[in-house]
Design a protein that fits this description.
By secondary structure, the protein is an alpha/beta fold. It is 35% helix and 29% strand. The chain is built from 7 helices and 11 strands.
Length: 219
């Protein structure tokens, strides 16, 4: 099966195609005025993979948590493609995309921090084959929870945003290299395919962003 994956939860996103003999990944910066870039990347990825739509069997999309605008962009495209091309779609959380590959190889604990805004991060602990529920915490509280554990690897945009503070205040925490703090479309495809094989997919209409609210906020 060939999987087409969409990644738009952060400042860098793109499109990936994964198949038995195909791996294509296109990355680009996302932001204001870049709403049309994902459909263009989809067509370019298909061209590079030398595939037609008839050869795509599954759509996978990052459902967050992450950028409100970015998530809406990726989910809207995934839903439209699912309907027009009559394809099943699977949602993958950004914490899974960032944390699960590390959980397979890191001997200690893996934690994902995704920068929300100002001094807040979405945070989740990740084990092999499972990412825990996300919570939203201010940096001091998230840092305190990190320091309660040993042999921690921290990954994600939050790790990059607060890298200087972490090196000073929690030098025992290992920070993943910057390139690994960006959610990758091919990882979305890999996790999406595994989920589809376990649980099946949907038609996309019920797919919603993974929003996580601070205490006292309402969605």
């Amino acid at each position: 099966m060939h999987v087409l994956a969409l990644e738009s939860a952060g400042s860098v996103g793109g499109v990936g195609i994964l198949g038995p003999k195909v791996q294509v990944e296109l990355l680009t910066s996302l932001g204001p005025g870049r709403g049309e870039i994902l459909p263009e990347l989809v067509q370019e990825a298909l061209r590079l993979a030398r595939l037609t739509w008839e050869e795509i069997g599954l759509l996978a999309v990052d459902i967050g948590p992450g950028s409100f605008t970015g998530l809406r962009m990726g989910l809207s495209l995934a839903k439209a493609l699912a309907q027009v091309r009559d394809l099943p779609v699977v949602g993958v959380r950004q914490t899974e995309v960032l944390g699960l590959p590390w959980a397979e190889v890191w001997p200690g604990r893996v934690c994902v921090w995704i920068h929300d805004r100002r001094e807040y991060v979405y945070t989740a602990w990740v084990e092999r084959e499972r990412a825990g529920a996300e919570t939203v915490l201010p940096f001091p509280e998230a840092l305190a929870k990190l320091r309660e554990r040993t042999s921690v690897l921290l990954v994600g945009s939050g790790a990059q945003r607060f890298a200087e503070e972490l090196r000073t205040q929690a030098p025992e925490v290992t920070l993943a290299p910057a390139p690994f703090c960006i959610p990758r479309p091919l990882v979305v495809a890999q996790i999406g395919l595994a989920k589809y094989n376990r649980e099946g997919g949907s038609d996309g209409l019920a797919l919603e962003p993974q929003y996580v609210h601070k205490e006292g906020e309402h969605g």
